[in-house]
User: Fold this.
Amino acid sequence: MKLFLDTANIDEVRKALETGLLDGLTTNPSLIAREGKDLTTEVKKMIELFERAGRSDYSISMEVVSQDTAGMLKEAAVYSKVGKGIVVKIPMTAPGMAAVKVLTAKKMKTNVTLVFSANQALLAAKAGATYVSPFIGRIDDIGMNGMELLEEIRTIYENYGYKTEILAASIRSPRQVAQAAMIGCDIATLPYKIFEQLFQHPLTDNGLKKFLEDWDGLKKKIGDHK
Assistant:
């Protein structure tokens, strides 16, 4: 499963890339507003970081803000010139799916966002979306089951051979990453805090501490016998 970072923070991208395990990024207007910076400028910086890290297969989703098909297509044309690896993020609406159809015909990659039902995911796949982004955390917030939604989408796509990749979004815990992987999601996009937590376990910390204590004890014992 590929791991994307859901961020507009350059420092977070830099630190995640240092692990060698980051495959791409997703951004949205809310994340950009939180950073208070220009989207295109920041994405160009992110592209430079991926290329310096020797990654040529990265993916960076840039979200449109237009609500009509013509406006979305105009924004997509601008985004496509920002650099390689750009994916146009389109909302799950009827005008959005019309835009996805056009962009797919032009060989432009798309990510259909704000997906909350299996029917919406079906429509995104029929439109030819590269990625579909079910928001599992927000599904859980309203008392439904985000993992069940991922299972439904996986079943539908396998039934009909759709090539659209499932990108689990709105992830709130490391456990949800593992669950999405077991279901067979292609990608998970994570806040940096969750990405960091994937590396952590108290038994790992305790075990490492014990190994280092034993090693220091051995070095001291050897030193005493010299």
In short: The chain is about 55% helix and 15% strand. Residues 45 and 101 are 30 Å apart (CA to CA). The first helix runs from residue 10 to 17.
